[in-house]
Automatic annotation (TrEMBL):
It comes from marine metagenome. Residues 30-145 form the PurM-like N-terminal domain. This is PurM-like N-terminal domain-containing protein. GO terms for molecular function: ATP binding; metal ion binding; phosphoribosylformylglycinamidine synthase activity. GO terms for biological process: 'de novo' IMP biosynthetic process.
Length: 306
């Protein structure tokens, strides 16, 4: 968890100097995405994130899962994604890797969004030899939400059911978070298994299922599974609520046999969410996710341990 991708240990000092408060700011740093009041009881939810290392290793999937991740961050807040943007930076056009990286990244960004029905409306591209050894891939998503239907990731209450929804857990993306702080060398091909593999059609189903559940009042907290997977999402929800979360890994839906607890906890399989529900809402929620052909499992509960 103590790597740049998860903790921002090197850049946090500089990020703290940026303005984060204002009359229109509903949510600043500390949540899945920022929220700005745009009037008429509406708000814009936005998130920008880099996916540099994964895109350098496997340009299509690296860029695609970067887009998928920030779209999940946006609809985790209760918003429907409406637009994607990007800022991408490559090495010299004459460099042997640039053409393949450019093609893969552009197709990955556009392809994932198009499958979900979210257009890429603007972008920025530059070339400089300083990026020969590692490109920059920044993706951004905007979403629209009603101010009274914003959802947060802070767990609350004791003995509340902790729900796993979305795709099954596999071995893809394990150590993806720590890889994001690694130095690349000639063995870069060996790192490809650490790059997550996205499925935008499943994410579309997850988007619609989550928004349908959000129309009611059953969700206490919700968090997407990004870097470090189930480990990061459960810790973030529990720590924000000053609670503990007890998880039974035998109940986690897995698509591969004989996965170890270590693999299940650190898998970065995409299109997954962790939800804390109100007691007694499990069956109602399960019907929604069953309708959208998504996995639904009660894998734990909140506790008073920290």
């Amino acid at each position: 968890m103590w790597n740049e991708h998860c903790s921002y240990k090197s850049s946090k000092l500089h990020l703290k100097n940026l303005p984060t408060k204002g009359k229109k700011v509903i949510q600043g740093p500390g949540e899945n995405a920022g929220v700005i009041d745009i009037g008429d009881d509406d708000a814009i939810v936005f998130k920008i994130e880099s996916h540099n290392h994964p895109s350098f290793i496997e340009p299509y999937q690296g860029a695609a899962t970067g887009v998928g991740g920030i779209m999940r961050d946006v609809f985790t807040m209760g918003a429907r994604p409406i637009a994607n943007l990007n800022s991408i930076h490559f090495g010299s056009p004459q460099h042997k890797k640039t053409k393949n990286l450019l093609r893969g990244v552009v197709h990955g960004i556009g392809g994932y969004g198009n499958c979900i029905g979210v257009p890429t409306i603007a972008g920025q591209t530059s070339f400089d030899e300083s990026y020969n050894g590692n490109i920059l891939v920044n993706a951004m998503t905007l979403g629209l939400v009603k101010k009274n239907k914003i959802f947060y990731s802070k767990a609350a209450g004791l003995n509340k059911p902790v729900i796993y929804v979305g795709s099954k857990t596999g071995r893809d993306g394990i150590h993806g978070a720590s890889m994001a702080s690694a130095i690349f060398d000639e063995k870069i091909e060996e790192k490809k298994p650490t790059v997550q593999v996205g499925d935008p059609f499943t994410e579309k189903l997850l988007l619609e299922a989550c928004l349908e559940l959000m129309a009611g009042d059953s969700i206490i907290a919700i968090q997407d599974m990004g870097a470090a997977g189930l480990t990061s999402s459960s810790i973030e929800m529990a720590s924000k609520g000053k609670l503990g979360i007890e998880i039974n890994l035998n109940k986690v839906p897995c698509r591969e046999s004989k996965m170890t607890p270590y693999e299940i906890m650190l898998s970065e399989s995409q299109e997954r969410m962790l939800i804390v529900l109100e007691n007694g809402k499990e069956n109602m929620a399960k019907k929604i996710f069953d309708k959208w052909n998504l996995d639904f499992a009660v894998i734990g509960k909140t506790t008073n341990s920290k």
